[in-house]
Amino acid sequence: MVTIRDWTVQYPDATVAIDRLSLQIEDGERLALIGANGAGKSTLILSLVGILPGSGEVTIEGLTLNKSNITEIRTKAGVIFQNPDDQLFLPTIYDDVAFGPRNLGLDEESVRHRVEDRLELLNIAHLRERSALKLSGGEKRMAAIATVLAMKPDVMLMDEPTAFLDPKSRRCLIKLLQTLPHTMLIATHDLAFAAEVCSRCLILKDGRYFADGPTQKLLYDAEKMDAAGLEAIS
Ligand SMILES: Nc1ncnc2c1ncn2[C@@H]1O[C@H](COP(=O)(O)OP(=O)(O)OP(=O)(O)O)[C@@H](O)[C@H]1O
Ligand SMILES: [Mg+2]
C-alpha cells in the first residue's frame, strides 16, 4: 500500500510542482496518473522514492520515507523512468538487469536465473549481450522494465512506460502488467493503455489533485477531461 499525505514538491527555483497532494493506492491496485504536460506526474514519481525531496508524508509498504531509509524504500518501490537511458548504464543488457540482484548480494547462479527469467518475460532474451547504447527506444524501454522487475519490488512506479513501444511490444506490456500482482502507479498520456491496465485513474492539474475515479468512467468524461487540459477517449 502507498499512502501520500499533504505532499508538496518544490524545485530550487521555487516552482511548486506538486502541491499538497494526498492519495492512497491499495495493495495490488493499478492507478493511472494522468495530466497535461507539466502537470507534475514525473515529479511525483521521482519524489516518492526520494530522488526529489518533498515535504509531507509518503508511506510505502509500511515504511515512511525519510532521509535515512531511501535505500530501503527503493527496494520496496522500483521506478521505471520516463527516459530509459537513465536506467541502463552497463556494457550489456544482461549486466544492467543483473545489477540490482547482484547489489542485493545474491549468488551468481541465482542472479542468472532471475535475469534470464525477466528477459524471457519481456521477450528480450535476444538482447542480453547487446549494449543499451545500440538499442532502439522500445528495446531500451523493455530492458528498463526488466531491471526493475529483477529487484522484485512490491510497488512499481512507471513514467510513460508505453513511450517508444511499437504496437506488438505495447500489447506485450499490457498483457504483462495485467497479470503482475504489484501495486502500480503509472504516469501516462496513453489513455487507451490506462483504460486497459488500470482500474482507477487520478488526474493532476498544475501539481494539484483534480479528480480521481474508475478509468472506465473518468477517461470518457469529456467535460472533466477537457477542464484538466486533456482529451477524453471517444
Ligand atoms: N528541474 C526543474 N526545475 C524547475 N522546475 C521544473 C524542473 N523540472 C520540472 N519542472 C517543472 O515542474 C512542473 C512539473 O513537471 P513534470 O516534469 O513533473 O511534469 P509532467 O506531468 O511529468 O509532464 P510531461 O507530461 O511533459 O512529462 C512543470 O511546471 C515543470 O516545468
Ligand atoms: Mg513527465
Please describe what this structure looks like:
The protein is globular and about 50 Å long. Helix 4 (108-121) packs across helix 5 (137-149). The relative contact order is 0.18. By secondary structure, the chain is an alpha/beta fold. The chain has a single domain, classed as 3-Layer(aba) Sandwich (Rossmann fold). It has helices at residues 41-48, 70-76, 93-103, 108-121, 137-149, 167-179, 191-197, 215-218, 222-227; strands at 2-10, 16-25, 30-34, 55-60, 63-64, 77-80, 155-159, 183-187, 200-205, 208-214. It has a 6-stranded mixed beta sheet with strand order 6-7-8-3-9-10, sandwiched between helices. Strands 2-1-4-5 form a 4-stranded antiparallel beta sheet. The chain contains 9 helices and 10 strands. A hairpin with a 2-residue loop joins strand 4 and strand 5 (63-64). The model has no long low-confidence stretch (mean pLDDT 96). Adenosine-5'-triphosphate binds at residues 11, 13, 15, 17, 35, 37-43. Magnesium ion is lined by residues 41-42, 82, 159.
Strand content: 25-35%
What is the level 1 CATH name? Alpha Beta
What name goes with the CATH superfamily?
A: P-loop containing nucleotide triphosphate hydrolases
* Percent helix range: 25-40%
The end-to-end distance, rounded to whole angstroms, is 32 Å
